């Protein structure tokens, strides 16, 4: 299936964003470890969260988490440290080529019973769960923060707790800190005891009423639309909090450099939960930024800068190679269709010096089974009339209402065979 997208001449809309996928997935697994009955409120309804909900509810022998990387990492740790019996956890073909060995080996060193069903270092996994004693363990800190978060969440369920020492550079620290905050919300005692060491005390989680805030990652695509606008565009986004623990909330500061103002409104009880985005003229000569702590903003920022003719150099993108697709190569290929020659180097930086190529007359964006490719390229319709996007349904992985929200904002979306 393919969508043809035609942008409106003006944008003045109010959008209720989906709940945070990142917080939902953490809260669900922690809630399961409490043994409580009251589910977290305002759960995300995206695919990645739904697979965790079904897995924890049904606990089948074979757990298929499909393309949900967070679910694979979190559920692997959950199954390994609970008396949940024997299970095989698997996913899509792409998931079976996404590495998980670092997490498996760390769990094994603490006594977990995990074996590879297929290729060494990759799913599927056969896990025989039992409560672990815990103790001290090392893990590389520069591959995926989801491995680290999975270990931390599981650590509170170990008899002796856990001390996790991270080796090398540490990426995506805001996601690690988000995990620590969510754990504390459920009663865990966990803290950084050094620049690369985290201690999880042997204190069980406790059942806690929990409300999940809305998603700053989803907000980034509306920031992109306002940044690409040529007129007085205004977008109100509901359910966002000032001072959010979500790492992607930094988008408000990054986009301020690209011409987007953020204003928080105050609701009853003085809690700011609605932001108004508006455009103002600004021309940044060049953008350089290290996205090592916010890799999920890469597609949004890179597409926005290119379409605003702002040369850029984005660093800290190494993990993009092992996402739903190789996002570095995907970005280079799809931006070339729009006339932009983006290059990468040995460090996996993405660089655009202003070089252009012939754009496709009727560009069709491939999504590579990657939700963020569709989400980040759809706003390009503001600059490329009748832009087309293949396999648009991939957005259900994180933002199921995206196309409906675009329609409500005045975009015309036509389905093509």
Polypeptide structure, described:
The chain is an alpha/beta fold and 417 residues long. The protein has helices at 21-34, 47-58, 69-81, 101-109, 145-155, 173-185, 216-228, 251-256, 298-307, 327-337, 371-377, 402-408; strands at 2-6, 12-16, 62-64, 86-90, 113-116, 125-128, 135-140, 162-167, 190-194, 197-200, 234-238, 260-265, 274-279, 287-290, 312-315, 343-344, 350-352, 364-365, 387-390, 412-416. The radius of gyration is 21 Å and the shape is globular.
What's the topology here?
Elements: E1 2-6, E2 12-16, H1 21-34, H2 47-58, E3 62-64, H3 69-81, E4 86-90, H4 101-109, E5 113-116, E6 125-128, E7 135-140, H5 145-155, E8 162-167, H6 173-185, E9 190-194, E10 197-200, H7 216-228, E11 234-238, H8 251-256, E12 260-265, E13 274-279, E14 287-290, H9 298-307, E15 312-315, H10 327-337, E16 343-344, E17 350-352, E18 364-365, H11 371-377, E19 387-390, H12 402-408, E20 412-416
Parallel strand pairs: 2-11, 3-4, 7-8, 14-15, 18-19
Antiparallel strand pairs: 1-19, 1-20, 4-6, 5-6, 8-10, 9-10, 11-13, 12-13, 15-17, 16-17
Helix pairs in contact: 1-2, 1-3, 1-6, 2-3, 3-5, 4-5, 5-6, 7-9, 9-11
Tell me the structural class.
alpha/beta
Radius of gyration: 21 Å
Count every beta strand, where a strand is a DSSP E run of 2 or more residues: 20
> What percentage of residues falls in helices of 4 or more residues?
25-40%
In percent terms, what proportion of residues is strand?
15-25%
Q: How many strands, which pairing sense, and closed or not: the largest β-sheet? A: 4 strands, mixed
Shape: globular
Pick out the low-confidence regions: none
Order of neighbouring strands in the sheet with most strands: 18-19-1-20
Instruction: Quote the distance from N terminus to C terminus.
Output: 5 Å
Please state the average pLDDT score: 95
Helical element count?
12
């Amino acid at each position: 299936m393919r969508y043809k997208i035609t942008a409106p001449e003006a944008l003045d809309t109010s959008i209720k964003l989906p709940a945070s996928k990142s917080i939902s997935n953490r809260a669900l697994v922690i809630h399961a470890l409490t043994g409580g009955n009251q589910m977290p409120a305002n759960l995300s309804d995206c695919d990645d969260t739904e697979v965790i909900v079904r897995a924890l509810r049904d606990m089948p022998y074979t757990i298929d988490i499909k393309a949900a990387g967070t679910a694979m990492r979190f559920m692997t740790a959950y199954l390994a440290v609970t008396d949940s019996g024997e299970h095989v956890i698997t996913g899509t073909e792409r998931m079976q080529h996404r590495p998980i060995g670092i997490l498996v080996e760390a769990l094994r060193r603490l006594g977990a019973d995990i074996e590879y069903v297929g290729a060494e270092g990759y799913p599927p996994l056969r896990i025989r769960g039992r409560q672990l004693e815990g103790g001290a363990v090392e893990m590389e800190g520069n591959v995926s923060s989801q491995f680290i978060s999975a270990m931390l969440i599981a650590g509170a369920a170990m008899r002796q707790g856990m001390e996790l020492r991270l080796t090398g550079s540490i990426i995506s620290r805001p996601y690690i800190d988000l995990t620590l905050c969510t754990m504390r919300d459920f009663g865990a005692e966990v803290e950084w005891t050094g620049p690369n060491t985290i201690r999880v005390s042997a204190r069980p989680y406790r059942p806690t009423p929990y409300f999940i805030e809305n998603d700053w990652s989803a907000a980034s695509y509306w920031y992109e639309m306002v940044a690409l606008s040529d007129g007085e565009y205004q977008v109100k986004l509901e359910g966002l909090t000032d001072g959010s623990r979500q790492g992607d909330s930094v988008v408000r500061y990054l986009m301020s450099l690209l011409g987007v103002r953020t204003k928080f409104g105050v609701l009853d009880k003085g809690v700011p939960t609605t932001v108004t985005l508006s455009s103002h003229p600004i021309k940044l000569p060049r953008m350089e930024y290290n996205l090592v702590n916010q890799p999920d903003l890469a597609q949004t920022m890179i597409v926005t800068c290119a379409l605003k003719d702002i040369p850029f150099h984005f660093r800290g993108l190494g993990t993009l190679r092992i996402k739903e697709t190789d996002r570095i190569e995907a970005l280079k290929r799809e931006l070339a269709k729009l006339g932009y020659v983006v290059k990468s180097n040995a460090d996996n930086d993405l660089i655009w010096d202003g070089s252009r190529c012939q754009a496709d007359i009727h560009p069709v964006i491939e999504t590579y089974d990657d939700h963020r490719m569709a989400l980040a390229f759809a706003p390009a319709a503001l600059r490329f009339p009748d832009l087309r996007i293949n396999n648009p349904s991939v957005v259900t992985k994180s933002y199921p209402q995206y196309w409906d929200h675009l329609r409500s904002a005045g975009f015309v979306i036509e389905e093509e065979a």
